[in-house]
Structures are given as C-alpha cells and as structure tokens.
Amino acid sequence: MQTPSPEQAYRISVRQLLLRPDETRRISVTLDAETTESYGLRCRELPSAEGILENRAGVLMLRYTLHAVPELTCDRCLSPVEVPCEEQFSHVIVTETADRRQDAEYLLAPDAMLDLAEAVMTDLRLSLPTRILCRPDCKGLCPSCGQDLNLGECSCGCGSVTVQYDDQA
After folding, report:
1. pTM of the predicted protein model
2. Which of 15, 34, 46, 131 gets the most CB atoms within 10 Å of its CB?
3. What is the mean predicted confidence (pLDDT) over 130-156?
C-alpha cells in the first residue's frame, strides 16, 4: 500500500457530506513538522484542529478550534519567541466560486476535496500578530555593532545611541 504524500494526507472528501443535509462529521488533525515548515513556520507545538464539518440546509460549514505554538523571531532583537495560538474559526465551504473575488470569502474545496492543512495553516498565519516582540519594552539591537541592548549597553564606541520606536512615547 502506498503512503500518501504530505499534501494528500490532509485532503478529505466532503462529497458525501454535501449530499446529506443535517449531517455532521467530526474532524481532528495534527499537522506534521514537514507540512508546517512547508508553509514557512516552525512550531514548538504543532498545529492541531478539532471541530466539525456540517451540512446545514445545504450549506457546508467547517467550525474548529486551532491550537499551535509557533516559534517566531522578535522584530527588534531577533531573539526566538513562542507565540501561543488558540483560536476558533468558521468557514463556508464551496466546490467552486462564481468569480475570483469570492475566493477569499469561502473555503474552496475543488472536486469536493478539502485541504485541511491549507485551511489550518492559512488561519494560523492570519491569526499571528503583525508585530512580534520578545517583550513589550524590547530595546532591539545596536545599529552600529549589533549588540542586543536588552543584555546591556554596547561597547562599540558609537556613543549612547538610543533607538526610538513608533510605539514608544
């Protein structure tokens, strides 16, 4: 028996569910490290999703809770930062859209095959903060020598360089 590729392992058929109003199916998936990294993220705790797929009066819905702990980098000092994520998501699933502008409004399942990895990783990326800081008062790096100013003053002879960030008064 052939092992499915990582891309195929998270694809599930929703064809039968589309044909049965008021039917539900539980989903539970944990993405592997290879799949997570293929979407550009490393995680201390791999993304997992628990929820349901349900056909409510002919409308297919995906509702789930996402849990993950991505390993990111501080935007100021480049230190590693873990950003826990526990979010709930809800999507309407369609097999096709009338035009390309609607693709963002719905979760597309062409050929009635839903890619859970794509849905989970897209939701995870969109739920991450736009600014990643190791702590709110991170001082960043010296612009001359690169010393982490959170660890102390630098000795590069640049003088007392103070970096002012937009979010600091």
Report:
1. 0.81
2. 46
3. 90
